[in-house]
Amino acid sequence: MTYRVYLVDDHAVFRSGVRVELASEDGIAVIGDAGTVPEAVAGIVEHTPDVVLLDVHMPGGGGVAVLRGVTDALGSQAPVFLALSVSDAADDVIATIRAGARGYVTKTISGTDLADAVRRVAEGDAVFSPRLAGFVLDSFTGRSPVPEPALDPELDSLTRRELEVLRLLARGYTYREIAEELFISVKTVETHASNVLRKTQQSNRNALTRWAVNRQIG
């Protein structure tokens, strides 16, 4: 059978790329996409896809807001949600699963593996990258609950995009690699990095990396 997929991501270029990747896969048809929370909820309710590929970090409440909006509207008739995110942070994974997603994979996944993940969640499986599965199991068994984040004014001052850039910088990504990962220009990455340095009061990238590691960001 053919599984009908709806794509939700606030980056149009990324949505186009996923469409191209999935177009060559048997048994999968992308029937629509949206870049904002309200558009996503309305589109999913209208088209009733089998699977929703869902970005976690979006303006207006992110993927969790989409999950809740669709569930409120469709109840038990809601489609299956598979999170597709740049973030592999434990708190993002667990919050999304608790909101109702059936799986969580990162945007480094190949097109073939993504198609396989779509088929699996559509057929009732839960799909996670191995490390992310550990977060979920530990959280729901109570062995390693995610702690409430401590107040950190410098960290809290960062925008969502600046935090994404910070995480990738902490992992050793170059500006060009960050640009490719986030589908933005190198110049935009440089601007975000400059803002991060200013807001965190760090003098250079090495100091910023140490600052991030001390806060378990990365």
Looking at this protein, list some descriptive labels.
218 residues, alpha/beta, Rossmann fold, Arc Repressor Mutant, subunit A, 2 domains, six-stranded parallel sheet, 11 helices, 54% helix
H/E series: EHEHEHEHEHEHHHHHH
Number of domains: 2
Give the averaged pLDDT, no decimals.
86
Q: CATH topology of the largest domain, what is it called?
A: Rossmann fold
Q: How is the biggest beta sheet arranged? A: 6 strands, parallel
Number of strands: 6
Radius of gyration: 18 Å
**Secondary structure: helix percent:** 40-55%
Strand residue content: 5-15%
The CATH architecture category of the largest domain equals 3-Layer(aba) Sandwich
- Highest CATH level, the class of the largest domain: Alpha Beta
Strand order of the largest sheet: 2-1-3-4-5-6
Distance from N terminus to C terminus (CA atoms, Å) equals 40 Å
Write the CATH homologous superfamily of the largest domain. Answer: Response regulator
Structural shape: globular
GO biological process, one term: regulation of DNA-templated transcription
Keywords: DNA-binding, Phosphoprotein
GO molecular function: DNA binding
Protein name: Putative two-component response regulator
